[in-house]
Amino acid sequence: QLKLWNKYRISNIPSLIFLDATTGKVVCRNGLLVIRDDPEGLEFPWGPKPFREVIAGPLLRNNGQSLESSSLEGSHVGVYFSAHWCPPCRSLTRVLVESYRKIKEAGQKFEIIFVSADRSEDSFKQYFSEMPWLAVPYTDEARRSRLNRLYGIQGIPTLIVLDPQGEVITRQGRVEVLNDEDCREFPWHPKPVLELSDSNAVQLNEGPCLVLFVDSEDDGESEAAKQLIQPIAEKIIAKYKAKEEEAPLLFFVAGEDDMTDSLRDYTNLPEAAPLLTILDMSARAKYVMDVEEITPAIVEAFVNDFLAEKLKPEPI
User: Fold this and answer.
1) Which long-range contacts link 126-130 to residues 24+ away (Cβ below 8 Å)?
2) What is the pTM of this model?
3) What average pLDDT score do residues 187-207 get?
């Protein structure tokens, strides 16, 4: 059961995922919405459609102006799932307004589309009045639902960033915006290895994560650790991308700060550094390798043994 939770990155229940029985590939991540929207099965087998097809139709500005979705041609697009009743959404929106302004002022072709999860049209209008970008009309519930289905949205706020062809660059737009307030790394192509921070720590709950703890007081220690892990992370990511699957591990380097101390305390890890771990929060399991020197060979063997289920977990 836990393997399935991790494989499909389930963060809440009930969840219903449709698969192609021949290939095992995901057809639809949000089966509950499919059943609600298509109870007769007229759209079966509910495979993913191109973004341009799903978004087709009028889009609104908060001044009442209407634009056709064809106006997005040639732009990077952020698809923003949010609601006024959600405090984290309102906090992110304030930051995102500034990010949007900076990206536009830098001459980048970028647009955001608000997909509301508000509970009334009045709430939608009040919230949308704070936003300088576009929105799917609140009355177009079918299109809002199709976008939720397309990206398998399980919680808000979620910001999906697309390239001009409508392909996903990152599903972690929320984390990227909070980590890069100057938008220097826009459009936020995913990094193979992340430096653990308050804003991206939420990703530890998405599935198994390799975390290399280092003594960040040593100059260059964190950067050296990232360089050590990166070729292994890239190899794993490429392998699963070729199979059109998500990588089974996320990769982090953790320095020394209050958040890292809290993580060590919560998972009952020793204070050693360097310390190589794989943390699986959903399974409440950890795998620990405490050695004096971490080498690429040690990391690769540790990862391969984990993927081959040769490691014995310790409880968190």
Assistant:
1) 126/84, 127/82, 127/83, 127/84, 127/90, 127/93, 128/60, 128/62, 129/62, 130/93, 130/97
2) 0.83
3) 91
